[in-house]
Amino acid sequence: MSTIINNLNWRYATKKYDASKKISTEDLEKIKEAVRLSASSYGLQPYKILIVENPELRAKIQPVAWGQSQIVDASHLIIFANETNFGEAGIDSFANNIVATRGIPAESIQGYVDFMKSKITTLPAETKNHWTSKQTYIALANLLSAAAELKIDATPMEGFEAEKVNEILGLDKLGLNTSLIATLGYRHEEDASQHFKKVRKSNEELFINL
């Protein structure tokens, strides 16, 4: 446990990346697996994750992401895109995965499937899309922790124009919406932020014992 605490103290939202340094394929696969194993509501994972390496696409995204240099300088750009209008098809796909993975009859989980459909498909579209967007934040947390364990820098971002990112990447046609952006790579030695003390609330301020 001391290792993860040390690594979480080490990490920070990197402001300037060393564009000459790239993440190895092996380390990227480890981060992807950590994200894949993320928890989500009902286990549905109602999102897709785009790994954008194409420099031309990243150059197009940068202006609609407040001009942040991390978009083009980091080793990898990660787009967390929540599914819009998630419904019965997504739930049925998840159910089929359960049946195939666990080798059980579909009838044995029909009650769970019906329950999910009764709770999700009846939601207004806006509420449902907000819910699927929130799921991406759980996956982001796994990405940040896994990257820190590998001593890979990461920057979570909410500073972007989602509609324009969607347009650049053609996400609307895929039934997706940009929920979060994260960059991965290695801090530049000139990034002054790496030397700042981490500022967080104290235990007394943050936690409430009941």
Question: Which secondary structure elements does this structure contain, and how are they paired or packed?
Answer:
Elements: H1 2-10, H2 25-36, E1 47-52, H3 55-61, H4 70-73, E2 76-83, H5 88-102, H6 110-120, H7 125-149, E3 153-157, H8 162-169, E4 176-185, H9 203-206
Antiparallel strand pairs: 1-2, 2-4, 3-4
Fold and architecture overview:
The chain has 210 residues and is α+β, with helices and mostly antiparallel strands. The protein has a domain of 124 residues: 3-Layer(aba) Sandwich (NADH Oxidase). 45% of the residues lie in helices and 14% in strands. The protein has nine helices and four strands; from the N terminus they run ααβααβαααβαβα. Strands 1-2-4-3 form a four-stranded antiparallel beta sheet, sandwiched between helices. The longest helix is centred in the middle third of the chain and has 25 residues. The protein is globular, with a radius of gyration of 19 Å. The model has no long low-confidence stretch (mean pLDDT 97). GO terms for molecular function: oxidoreductase activity. This is NAD(P)H-dependent oxidoreductase. InterPro entries: NfsB-like, Nitroreductase, Nitroreductase-like.
